[in-house]
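Morning!

As promised:
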Amino acid sequence: MVINDLDALVASAEGAFAAAATPAELENAKARFLGKAGAVTEAMKGLAALPVEQKKSRGAAINQAKQRIEAALQARRDALARAELQAQLRAEALDVTLPGRKRGSGGLHPVSRTMMRIEAIFRSMGFDVADGPEIETDWYSFTALNNPENHPARSMQDTFYVDLKDAEGRWLNLRPHTSPMQVRYAQAHASRHGTGAEMPEIRVIAPGRTYRVDSDATHSPMFHQCEGLWIGENVSFKDLKFVFSDFLRRFFETDDLEVRFRPSYFPFTEPSAEIDIAFGHGPLQGRWLEVAGSGQVHPNVVRNYGLDPQTHIGFAFGMGPDRLTMLRYGVGDLRQFFDGDLRFLSQFR
Ligand code: PHE
């Protein structure tokens, strides 16, 4: 019983320590056994009442029990500390096998790709690339292009007219086509190089945004055009046919393509033609599709360039890069290009 009460005390301490789930609980349990008013101290106090001959062995037994309790306490402290470390490691664990969160990568808009292609091909044929204003004067949009005020041909374009005049009192509009750039570029070219025989040929394309009151599967109120102009002393319709057909074959990377110049009317060209293409293969095989308007520049327009139509002649065209993009990628609705839906656009990355 004397030995057993100490064994029981040790067992009870071990049980209490094991039951402590946190360091704080463990320190409370320690106080109950090893503290000033703890069970071991109480047992020591009991020594005083013992006869001398029992004191020594009882004292030694209590000390031994105390050491076992201290050892159990230390073991439990270590175990709790280890468990805490493990829990912390688990909580802070990085699963290096998870797929990474990539930074989204952007891409070029499909129409931008088309524009870059058009520019590269025409540059390789010796054309300059020019840029011009999207808010344009009535004079450049129409009058300079042989399309006088109140002429019914102005209604060929569903123009966004703006109730505003520029500093010189000219009416403004959102340009309905890139053709004003013919006049702007040719004027600048002529004033830079002179207008006589010393003037180098004008060979330029002018890609950019254009605007019309128009919206369906093949028309968007904002769309793109690319103007082309080649003016020299002896530039003919034959050159137009060659240059444009060559461009189309290079753009679509196929010779299996027919090009048709269908007689048409524009105030600024005479004769005028719509340019249609038909593929000899693929889903659109054999269907004629209109991709551009074109023609030999009208003498009145050449005059508005600041040049003499007796000495300068050439052709112009205006194509629709959005249409070319639809054909190249097989997209059925033009408006998708401008909806800003990344599910659609990211397919072209
Ligand atoms: N500007 C015309 C249009 O938008 C296209 C064109 C350009 C036609 C140049 C002839 C010459 O429809």
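The chain is about 40% helix and 20% strand.

Hope this helps with the figure draft.
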